[in-house]
Amino acid sequence: MAQTMPAKKVYKRFRSPSDLIFDTLNIIFLVGLAVVTLYPFINTLAVSLNDASDSIRGGIFLWPRQFSLESYQYVFKEATIFHATLISILRTVLGTVITVFSSAMVAYTISRPEFVLRKFVTVMFVLTMYLNGGLIPNYLLIRDLHLIGSFWVYIVPGIIGVFNMIVIRSFIEGLPEGIIESARIDGAGDFRTFMQIVLPLSLPALATVALFTGVYQWNSWFDVFLYNSQVPNLSTLQYELMRMLANSNSNSSMTSASAFANSGNTNANFVTPTSIRATMTIVASVPMIIVYPFLQKYFVKGMTLGGVKG
């Protein structure tokens, strides 16, 4: 008869009272952290979906008390919003791709030990993070470059991000040198090595930098105010939302809405600066919230492996 193997015993790990207390406190802390993190966004969403005249009374927490889309209708009734959204998307996509690619090229160059000026160039780049000419010299430089009133004013000034470049350089320096040497032995030049070897291997760092750059490009509005405020066709979504909020704050109908709400009549629909601000926050945040899950895996890995080194 065939000899049967004895069944493997399963030993349960002994959990002491201190382990149970630690796990309980850890769970309570993490749940509390999740609540603190999610509550402001959920509350803002509830305010944006609530009737504006009713929101003045307060007391809205996780769910709208009187559901209404009047605030969203007010925001999207402007014809310029959709064109500004298109400009924002175009700016974010082009700005992110060009900035990441340019920063990666510079990062690869200064990561090579055979580049004799790499330390000097790195110091020059890092100094720009601490020294700034100020707003007026910046404006004069943009004017002399003939970028005012141009779409490229959103792209060219930030084409090299120093912090982003340092993150990518640190990641590239952690790659096995043998891979790059093998490519050179096979006859690949620097550019081909960069495009076919370094870039694919640096995807986590590139995704991290792309997320940083994309969020900056999407949320930026001050450069629109400085350089393109007189060019409506180049206005962005963030600038239009900011301008809409400023107009709502100075609009006399906001005062009448408050008085109307205090009178006890809540049958009419109004918008208030509070409801518009909440709606603007949701409209501006949703695209980044949609994109982030697709980059989260690379973002975490890039921040772990591509830490900033001196």
Automatic annotation (TrEMBL):
<feature type="transmembrane region" description="Helical">
    <location>
        <begin position="120"/>
        <end position="139"/>
    </location>
</feature>
<keyword id="KW-0472">Membrane</keyword>
<feature type="transmembrane region" description="Helical">
    <location>
        <begin position="81"/>
        <end position="108"/>
    </location>
</feature>
<feature type="transmembrane region" description="Helical">
    <location>
        <begin position="20"/>
        <end position="42"/>
    </location>
</feature>
<comment type="similarity">
    <text>Belongs to the binding-protein-dependent transport system permease family.</text>
</comment>
<dbReference type="InterPro" id="IPR000515">
    <property type="entry name" value="MetI-like"/>
</dbReference>
<keyword id="KW-0812">Transmembrane</keyword>
<feature type="transmembrane region" description="Helical">
    <location>
        <begin position="276"/>
        <end position="295"/>
    </location>
</feature>
<dbReference type="GO" id="GO:0005886">
    <property type="term" value="C:plasma membrane"/>
</dbReference>
<dbReference type="Pfam" id="PF00528">
    <property type="entry name" value="BPD_transp_1"/>
</dbReference>
<keyword id="KW-1133">Transmembrane helix</keyword>
<protein>
    <submittedName>
        <fullName>Sugar ABC transporter permease</fullName>
    </submittedName>
</protein>
<keyword id="KW-0813">Transport</keyword>
<feature type="transmembrane region" description="Helical">
    <location>
        <begin position="151"/>
        <end position="172"/>
    </location>
</feature>
<feature type="domain" description="ABC transmembrane type-1">
    <location>
        <begin position="85"/>
        <end position="295"/>
    </location>
</feature>
<dbReference type="GO" id="GO:0055085">
    <property type="term" value="P:transmembrane transport"/>
</dbReference>
<keyword id="KW-1003">Cell membrane</keyword>
<dbReference type="InterPro" id="IPR035906">
    <property type="entry name" value="MetI-like_sf"/>
</dbReference>
<feature type="transmembrane region" description="Helical">
    <location>
        <begin position="193"/>
        <end position="218"/>
    </location>
</feature>
